[in-house]
Design goal:
CATH architecture of the largest domain in chain A: 3-Layer(aba) Sandwich
Structural class of chain A: alpha+beta
Number of strands of chain A: 4
CATH superfamily of the largest domain in chain A: Glutaredoxin
Radius of gyration of chain B: 26 Å
CATH class of the largest domain in chain B: Alpha Beta
Strand order of the largest sheet of chain B: 2-1-3-4-5
Largest interface: A-B, 49 and 63 residues
Largest sheet of chain B: 5 strands, mixed
Oligomer: heterodimer
Radius of gyration of chain A: 18 Å
Helix content of chain A: 40-55%
CATH architecture of the largest domain in chain B: 3-Layer(aba) Sandwich
CATH topology of the largest domain in chain B: Rossmann fold
Number of domains of chain B: 5
Helix content of chain B: 40-55%
Distance between the termini of chain A: 20 Å
CATH superfamily of the largest domain in chain B: NADH-ubiquinone oxidoreductase 51kDa subunit
Strand content of chain A: 5-15%
Largest sheet of chain A: 4 strands, mixed
CATH topology of the largest domain in chain A: Glutaredoxin
Shape of chain B: globular
Order of helices and strands of chain A: HHHHEHHEEEH
């Protein structure tokens, strides 16, 4: 599938084609496509005149980037210390069962990607889970199914 | 727009103060502040804000001023609302729901009678021992309104240094204040500034100031909260630093996991530019300065100065050896002065209030040696198994016991205190015997932990020390950039050993192996990540070796955390047959009838702990 590159060039333009903003650009691209398609990385490399291997290094170094498509909803289970002490592991395994995926995987329908995130900084509300931009505080394992169902019921855009 | 002058600043201050002044006969007769930090919002503060908005709209000319402020401090009891009436002390309400909001509005705001029940007394131990320098504007300013910051003497310190002080005098002041880097290293800020200025002057080169807001330590959220609540204090601090060092350009490197902080920061920067507090010829002086924001993309090691600067250049954030310091050759090979959010936020307060005021707070003597003590305050995020979790600011030298038991209110659910972990993954776990330790840079390092950026996580009897050490090592293993062997391979080996111990497969000699690995890593890792990585293991071994031995020799986890080392069961004497665990069990391992003691099938049990958490009668046991 060919990727529409106009958006990519808009993003590069927004960051003034500056090489030191490469990481910012890739974040915007990731938000747009839910991953970093190969063609896009080639385009970025060409426009910025940064060797492709260097773009690839950045794309694979930082956790925010993915070279494979992610689901519509990213479930991020916080694994910060406070959450860990408050039982984040059991929350995570509850999500694994509820979504039928393992940590880091995306389900078949590309609805959900299950991720662990290192500290969202809401430690007072541990354990914390985010689904895209929604925050769930003090989430008990017994509430996990309800959360998943809520997003399953949401209509696809 | 013509350049802002000090007179303009004073006018804005007066005007905003007059508009905000609470007076029975004035336009502003009561103020309601809703605390909208990330914690508050996730606890439902937006709904509370809307409730107040509707209530105020519903009544004409009631003189109620509704404001939004950042973090209220007591995260575990968000949403928080503060009510201010003329001549009365500020009243803070906690755990506010929509109904409470309506009652507070009717009875307290309009009726002037405080609502009991959810009001936190102003002498509550949570607030009593706190001293606010960095959080000086807590609840007083809306981060999106620069005028409110100016009303609290904001940008006065910048005006003062630009018009009355030479750069060298500013450096001398910061040096004399004994301000040490709040990111964890504790390096004296004044010394750093001086070296950076010197390096730039010597080579006649451009210099940079950088704000490290890549708060990666799990269990720490001080910097997020400061930027969300009071971004101008950081911007002003950076501008003062830039003037002292001779920099024209500043950078803020902020984690992408903090979207709200990023938004507030960008708004604040735009407002500062609009007022001419950033840009060309600030206060009509030759000094020009601006700040650019870069988002991190999820790499813990980018909190390390050389990795952060590599990332700012648009490259992978991999540290380099620091034979040559970044104050000499940093970003783009130019002299670069990197300080943490909290350090920058301290600067305007020191300029405004003076060295003597600042050095009165804290420990030691810094008059001749900036390493001679720890001055001022430290912001901590107090979390874990304490009753009051939240963001606190305490004077240096306060004891751990005072923090945990007075401010924190002790351990939840009447359990026993076991450990306090400070300093993030590079810090250590301290035991009960060290509770009377004064909290400052040097005492904590001497005890095998470190001040770190300010995460403070309390563990109780249900916290397993081996598991906690494994947690930090697994975190660091994942975050190691892989450049140097001791860190990359050392962490991998350490993790394998710790994992084995928690699986009940620990061997004699494992403890020795952990210690040996630690020594090599400390001595030979390239950057601070690897050098400090063994701290959680070494400190937990130092204070909790017995617990390691129980795992290795008896194959037991006394805290009931390591799933391979305990089994779940239901105590028939305590079980009331309420069926709650049965209904919640995802593995259908629990059977029984209503009002009859239930039974748990150990073969089916997946040890998800759901039954343990939902049981109200303490009938589910781990043994």
């Amino acid at each position: 599938m060919a990727v529409d590159l106009t958006k990519v060039n808009q993003i590069i333009g927004k960051w003034e084609s500056r090489k030191d903003f490469l990481i910012e650009m890739l974040q915007d691209i990731q938000d747009e496509y839910y991953y970093l398609p190969r063609d896009v990385l080639v385009e970025v490399s060409k426009v910025l005149e940064v060797p492709l291997n260097q773009v690839y290094e950045v794309a694979t170094y930082y956790k925010a980037f993915s070279l494979t498509p992610k689901g519509r909803y990213t479930v991020s289970v916080c694994q910060g210390t406070a959450c860990h002490v408050q039982g984040a592991d059991t929350v995570l395994s509850s999500f694994e069962r509820a979504l039928r995926v393992k940590l880091g995987e995306t389900d078949k329908n590309q609805d959900f990607t299950l991720e662990a995130v290192r500290c969202l900084g809401c430690c007072g509300l541990a354990p914390v889970v985010t689904v895209n931009k929604d925050i769930y505080a003090k989430l008990e394992p017994s509430q996990v199914l309800k959360v998943v169902d809520k997003y399953k019921k949401m209509p696809r855009q | 727009m013509s350049k802002i002058t000090i007179k303009d600043l004073a006018k804005i201050k007066e005007k905003t103060r007059a508009a905000m002044e609470l007076r029975e006969d004035g336009p502003c007769r009561a103020r309601v502040v809703v605390h909208m930090g990330t914690c508050g919002i996730s606890a439902g503060a937006a709904k509370i804000l809307h409730t107040f908005e509707d209530l105020i709209k519903g009544r004409k000319d009631n003189g109620v001023h509704l404001s939004v402020a950042g973090c209220g401090g007591l995260c575990s009891r968000e949403p928080m609302v503060t009510v201010e009436l003329p001549g009365a002390p500020r009243a803070t309400y906690v755990d506010v729901n929509v109904k409470d909001a309506q009652r507070i509005f009717e009875e307290h705001v309009l009726g002037k009678r405080a609502v009991t029940g959810k009001m936190l007394p102003s002498d509550d131990p949570f607030f009593k021992q706190q001293v606010f320098i960095v959080l000086r504007n807590r609840g007083l300013v809306d981060a999106e309104k620069i005028e409110e910051y100016i009303a609290q003497d904001g940008y006065m310190a910048l005006a003062k240094v630009l018009t009355q002080m030479k750069p060298e005098e500013v450096i001398k002041t910061i040096r004399a204040s004994g301000l040490r880097g709040r990111g964890g290293g504790g390096f004296p800020a004044g010394v750093k500034w001086e070296t950076c200025r010197h390096a730039g002057e010597e080579r006649g080169e451009e210099r940079y100031v950088i704000c490290n807001a890549d708060e990666g330590d799990p269990g720490a959220f001080m910097d997020r909260s400061v930027i969300e609540s009071d971004p101008h204090s950081v911007i002003e601090g950076m501008a003062i630093g830039a003037y002292a060092i001779g920099a024209k350009q500043g950078y803020v490197y902020i984690r992408k996991e903090y979207p709200l902080a990023l938004e507030k920061l960008n708004i604040a920067l735009a407002q500062a530019r609009a007022y001419g507090l950033l840009g060309q010829n600030i206060f009509d002086t030759p000094f020009s300065f601006d700040i650019e924001v870069h988002r991190g993309a999820g790499a813990f090691v980018c909190g390390e100065s050389t990795a952060l600067m590599a990332s700012l250049e648009g490259r992978a954030g991999i540290p380099r050896a620091k034979y040559i310091h970044t104050v000499e050759y940093g970003l783009n090979n130019k002299p670069s002065c990197l300080n943490n959010v909290e350090t920058w936020a301290n600067v305007p307060a020191i300029i405004n209030n003076g060295v003597e005021w600042f050095t009165r707070i804290g420990t030691g003597d810094v008059s001749t040696n900036p390493w001679g003590g720890s001055k001022g305050t430290k912001v901590f995020s107090l979390t874990g198994k304490v009753k009051n979790t939240g963001l606190i600011e305490v004077p240096m030298g306060i004891t751990l016991r005072e923090i945990i038991f007075n401010i924190g209110g002790g351990i939840v659910k009447g359990k026993k205190f076991k450990t306090v972990q400070t300093g993030g993954p590079s810090g250590g776990c301290l035991s009960e015997s060290l509770l009377d330790l004064p909290v400052d840079f040097d005492s904590l390092s001497d005890a095998g932990s470190m001040m770190g950026s300010g995460g403070m996580i309390v563990g109780d009897e249900e916290t397993c020390m081996v598991d906690l050490a494994k947690y930090f090592i697994s975190f660091l293993e994942e975050e190691s950039c892989g450049k140097c062997v001791p860190c990359r391979e050392g962490l991998r080996s350490m993790y394998a050993i710790l994992d084995r111990i928690t699986q009940g497969k620990g061997k004699k000699g494992d403890i020795k192996a952990l210690e040996d690995l630690s020594r090599v890593m400390i001595q030979s890792s390239l950057c601070a990540l690897g050098q400090s990585a063994p701290n959680p293991v070494l400190s937990s071994l130092k204070y909790f070796q017995e617990e390691y031995e129980r795992h290795i020799d008896d194959k037991k986890c006394p805290a009931g955390v390591c799933t391979a080392l305990y089994e779940m069961s239901i105590d028939p004497a305590k079980c009331t047959g309420c069926m709650v665990c049965l209904r919640n069990c995802p593995a259908s391992a629990i059977t029984g009838a209503k009002q009859k003691p239930h039974a748990l099938d150990k073969k089916k049990c997946i040890k998800c702990n759901i039954c343990y958490t939902v049981c109200k009668f303490d009938a589910v046991k781990k043994n």
